[in-house]
Predict the 3D structure of the following.
Amino acid sequence: MIAATHLEASQPNLEEEAKNYIEELETELDEPLELDESEPPPKPSIELKPLPSRHKYVFLNGDRDSPVIISN
């Protein structure tokens, strides 16, 4: 029993630490975030690799940047 009490005393109170952490996050989030919306991020280039004959590429909404592989 003494060992269990010693272990409990030596370990931090995780519940209390979690509460403190959440409170710190909430106070940090009270300020609005400044986002730069002037330029959208560049799209990554897509490399289409050869597929087996039973598969083919189709493109969502006719957009060459949205390939999907389907089976014939």
Summary: The beta strands are 55-59, 67-71.
